[in-house]
Amino acid sequence: MKDKKLEILSVTIFILALGFLYRDSVYGMVIEWYTDENYSHGFLIPVISGYLIWQKKDDIKSAVISPSNLGLPIVLLGLFVYLVGNVAGENFTMRLSLLLVAAGAIVFAYGSGLFRTILFPYCYLFFMLPLPFILYDSVAFPLKLLVTQYSVGFLKLIGIPVMREGNIIVLTTTTLEVADACSGI
Fold first, then answer.
1. What is the 3-state secondary structure (H, E, C) of 102-130?
2. Which of 84, 106, 123, 164 meets the CB 3.0–4.6 Å disulfide criterion with 152?
3. Please, are residues 185 and 142 in contact by the beta-carbon 8 Å criterion?
4. Burial tier of 154 (Cβ tally within 10 Å: 0-12, 13-18, 19+)
5. Closest CA to 131 of 120, 118, 141, 146
6. How high does pLDDT run on average in the chain?
């Protein structure tokens, strides 16, 4: 009973410390989910990840709990990444470090066996992180051009007169723009 109370206390203190350290990063990420339609899916990702973990509850209960010191270097790497991101003012790096620190803490407290059990739901959390604009744009823009090209090709195939200018589709009566949301990212 004493071990269970100590574990609950340790986890609570860790979560509070993590919350204190990452409060601004997480707050900024949630604001970005709310204000940028390209990242509005971010609200669903932790919920879906939690559901995927819940589906594995029997595997988690039967997983061998063997705390590992291999988690400490992962936590330290995550904290270093946070420091670098904080000094550089780069939000993506600081948010990524949260996932690294969480992974290291899980491995340290419960072992790599349990972490392997929840690896897919954990990795799924990466989709909640808004990408840096330069990376997002370098992926989204070519995809927008590709979507525009195929759309124009399809319209020509079915006999509709159409012209393409970059990511703009010019029809006889109207002009359409393939937006970021249509890029497929």
1. HHHHHHHHHCHHHHHHCHHHHHHHHHHCC
2. 164
3. no
4. exposed
5. 141
6. 89
Distances (CA, A) of 52 to 47, 76, 101, 113, 124: 9, 27, 20, 17, 9
Give CA–CA dist 163/13, Å, rounded: 61
What burial class does residue 39 get, using C-beta atoms within 10 Å of its C-beta: 0-12 exposed, 13-18 middle, 19+ buried? buried
pLDDT at 166: 86
Assess contact for 128 and 32: CB atoms under 8 A. Answer: no
CA distance 24 to 16: 14
Residue 183 has pLDDT above 70, yes or no: no
Q: Which of 75, 54, 184, 49 is nearest to 127 (CA)?
A: 49
134-179: pLDDT as tens digits: 888 888 888 888 888 998 999 999 999 999 998 889 988 888 888 7
pLDDT score recorded for residue 144: 86
Q: How many CA atoms lie within 13 A of 97 on its CB side?
A: 24
pLDDT attached to residue 63: 87
Q: Angle of helix 71-88 relative to helix 91-110, nearest 10 degrees?
A: 170
